[in-house]
C-alpha cells in the first residue's frame, strides 16, 4: 500500500505544480484605469427658515466640523434652489458676500470674524473658550425681526458642525448675543434633524 501511495504522490506532484504555476492570471504591471479614488463629499447642516420654522439642509463643505465655516455658509443665505423651495433666513445678509470666504480655524480662546461684504463691520464674531462657543452679532436684536429664530439658525448650525467633528461627543454649548448686549439664544435641543 505504501508503494501505491508513493506512486500516486509522485504523479500528483507535477500536476499540482503545473496547476499552481499556470493558474491563468497573466503577470502585468500597473494598469491605469482612471483617476484617483474619491470618497464621500463631506457635508454640514445649515438651518434656514420656512413658514416660521427651522429647516435643516445639507451642504457640501471643505471644512467639515468647523463652526466658523458653517456659519460663513449660513450667512451667505439660501442658494437659488433653496429659495425655490421656500427657504429664507432671519439673519441680515450682506449683498455681495463672496461665495468662497477663506476658512480660518477657530481654536481655543481665539476669536474670529465672518466678514461683511463691504468690510465696514463684522456681522458675526465666533469665540471658543472653556468648552463654550460664543457668537456675537454686530447688529442689535431689533434689526433681526425675529431674534429668537435668527439665533436658532446660528445655534443649530454651530451645533450641527460640532457633531460632524465629534459625533460621539456632546457639543459645546453655543450662545448668541446681539450688539445691544441682549442674549437672544443658546439652546440646541429644538434643532430639527435633516
Return the average pLDDT rounded to an integer. Answer: 74
The poorly predicted ranges are 95-121
Shape: elongated
Q: Proportion of β residues?
A: 15-25%
Instruction: Classify the secondary structure makeup into a structural class.
Output: alpha+beta
Distance between the termini: 75 Å
Q: What's the order of the H and E elements?
A: HEEHHEEEHEE
State the share of residues found in helices, binned by percent. 25-40%
Largest sheet: 5 strands, mixed
Q: Tell me the total number of β-strands.
A: 7
Q: What oligomeric state do the depicted chains represent?
A: single chain
From the alpha-carbon coordinates, what is the Rg to the nearest angstrom? 29 Å
- Total count of helical runs of at least 4 residues: 4
- The order of strands across the largest sheet is 3-4-5-6-7
Please, could you describe this protein's structure?
The protein has 194 residues and is α+β, with helices and mostly antiparallel strands. Mean pLDDT is 74; it is low at 95-121. Helix 2 (67-75) crosses helix 4 (147-165). It has a domain at 43-92 and 106-185. The strands form 2 sheets. A 5-stranded mixed sheet has the order 3-4-5-6-7. Strands 1-2 form a two-stranded antiparallel ribbon. 27% of the residues lie in helices and 22% in strands.
Amino acid at each position: 500500500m505504501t508503494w501505491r501511495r508513493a506512486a500516486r504522490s509522485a504523479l500528483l506532484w507535477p500536476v499540482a505544480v503545473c496547476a499552481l504555476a499556470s493558474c491563468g492570471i497573466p503577470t502585468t504591471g500597473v494598469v491605469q484605469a482612471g483617476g484617483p479614488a474619491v470618497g464621500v463629499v463631506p457635508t454640514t447642516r445649515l438651518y434656514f427658515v420656512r413658514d416660521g420654522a427651522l429647516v435643516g439642509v445639507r451642504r457640501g463643505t471643505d471644512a467639515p466640523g468647523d463652526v466658523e465655516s458653517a456659519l460663513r455658509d449660513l450667512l451667505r443665505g439660501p442658494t437659488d434652489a433653496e429659495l425655490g423651495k421656500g427657504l429664507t433666513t432671519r439673519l441680515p445678509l450682506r449683498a455681495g458676500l463672496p461665495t468662497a470666504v477663506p476658512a480660518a480655524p477657530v481654536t481655543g480662546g481665539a476669536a474670529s470674524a465672518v466678514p461683511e461684504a463691504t468690510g465696514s463691520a463684522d456681522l458675526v464674531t465666533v469665540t471658543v473658550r472653556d468648552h463654550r462657543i460664543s457668537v456675537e452679532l454686530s447688529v442689535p436684536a431689533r434689526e433681526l425681526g425675529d431674534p429668537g429664530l435668527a439665533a436658532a439658525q446660528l445655534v443649530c448650525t454651530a451645533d450641527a458642525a460640532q457633531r460632524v467633528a465629534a459625533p460621539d461627543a456632546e457639543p459645546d454649548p453655543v450662545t448668541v448675543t446681539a450688539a445691544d448686549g441682549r442674549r437672544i439664544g443658546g439652546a440646541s435641543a429644538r434643532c430639527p434633524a435633516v
